[in-house]
Amino acid sequence: MQTWFHDHPIVSYLLILAFTIYIFNAVFRMGKLPILKEIIVHIIMAIGCLVLLLLQLDKLPIIQCMSVAVVMMLMLRGRQMYDKWRAKRGGAEAAVKRTES
């Protein structure tokens, strides 16, 4: 897999950029920024991803590590949604039981 990423640097860069943007939005974003600041932040991220691409091409598993982080964040998000759904469903069942008694 590492050699495939080395042979396709554009795909590697786009994956690194996509993972970086997702991680930034999921973890570090506090609120909406004005559009100019948003553009500047994404340009700086794109430049920083070039450094990560160089490390990836130097045979470090950057994409694999970032994909593990994204999968763990998606699992956490899924668990939070499940807990919210479960709490809402549990509250509705408790209300039905109270009206039956």
From TrEMBL:
The chain crosses the membrane at residues 12-28, 35-55, 61-78. It comes from the Bacteria. The keyword Transmembrane helix applies. Keywords: Membrane, Transmembrane, Transmembrane helix. This is YlaH-like family protein. It comes from Cohnella rhizosphaerae.
